[in-house]
Amino acid sequence: MSASQQRTDASAAQGITYASAGVDVEAGDRAVELMKDAVRATQGPQVLGGVGGFAGLFDASALIGYRKPLLATSTDGVGTKVAIAQALDIHHTIGFDLVGMVVDDIVVVGAKPLFMTDYIACGRVVPERIADIVRGIAAACEQTGTALVGGETAEHPGLLAANEYDVAGAATGVVEADRVLGPERVRAGDVVIGMESSGLHSNGYSLVRRVINHAGWALERQVSELGRTLGEELLEPTRLYTADILDLAEALDADLHAVSHVTGGGLAANLARVLPQGLTATVDRATWQLPPVFALVAQLGNVPRPDLERTLNQGVGMVAVVADEVADAAVARLRARGTAAWVMGQVDASGPLTAVDTGDPDVVQGAKGVDGGTVRLVNENA
């Protein structure tokens, strides 16, 4: 009889418990104790009740002051970037990626984030690791002005390995109905402004990890082009644009027309989603320099540029479409806030796509189920 069979028989003889099935309730309680101060730091007087309730309560009285408040909501995860965090045993930054993927998806319509919840599924609850993840989420929520009102940690032994986990979250925000940003506001002559990403952010890691494995590179490898180890570069947190976009919306008012979060699908596809039919945004690659990590992925994996551009952000994390007369002021305002920004293109009226256009990887019309406008990428990156 094998040792594992002996242990199984002994466990059955003593009675099977939740703990023997692989779920440690006490570890979950310890994780909550370690994280609760960080969570409370995100909560103002609008949040009722304490950490650990069945549901988070948020006082919506402030919405009374809106003429016609619209609630905006989004949910997302971090994808396979969590595999890098697990391999390096560094978990306090992944929360920034989660908040970036969720909260910055609602700010693009002009919505101010109100609150967020998170969900962590793991093979085994290690209190310190769970607390690190949540502390990161809480720190990012503080930075974006979002209350973290609740969450859940679920132990899934047998489904996930002991050191594996995945994270997801959902956020809700509010915007006045007559201040919603989107395709309806965009006009011919508008200017496209790019905002620098902090790196890969949280998309395309299945491609990136495949390339790295193919090249046989270790995460601890020092890479001169990056000025740090490969793992440090890959774990760089997603830049948060929430405060920048809300500031632009307040300052530019009706002259801020649309905002696009450059996530899965890349720059062209995500920009096309916020353009109306009949308009084309011509984006000039020569207006920005491709950060080293993107060139490295392309080189190591011999990845074709069209595949790179529809998978990775290529150094552009957020895009704003503004009236021409405020473009310079918008760029200056973003730079003053510490976010590198530049004019990258212009919106013009477009005719019907030709057969050449529809076969051109540099031309994207609509995306992700949105039958929107067209984006044309021209020239080469600086």
TrEMBL record:
Domain PurM-like N-terminal: 70-175
Domain PurM-like C-terminal residues, every copy: 187-354
InterPro entries in the cross-refs: PurM-like_C_dom, PurM-like_C_sf, PurM-like_N, PurM-like_N_sf, PurM_cligase
Catalysed conversion reaction: 2-formamido-N(1)-(5-O-phospho-beta-D-ribosyl)acetamidine + ATP = 5-amino-1-(5-phospho-beta-D-ribosyl)imidazole + ADP + phosphate + H(+)
Top EC class for this record: ligase
Superkingdom of origin organism: Bacteria
This protein's UniProt keywords: ATP-binding, Cytoplasm, Ligase, Nucleotide-binding, Purine biosynthesis
Pathway terms, separated by semicolons: Purine metabolism; IMP biosynthesis via de novo pathway; 5-amino-1-(5-phospho-D-ribosyl)imidazole from N(2)-formyl-N(1)-(5-phospho-D-ribosyl)glycinamide: step 2/2
Main localization, broad class: cytoplasm
Keyword Cytoplasm: yes
Entry's EC annotation: 6.3.3.1
Coiled coil: none
Subcellular location as annotated: Cytoplasm
Family as reported in the entry's similarity comment: Belongs to the AIR synthase family.
NCBIfam families in alphabetical order: purM
Full protein name: Phosphoribosylformylglycinamidine cyclo-ligase
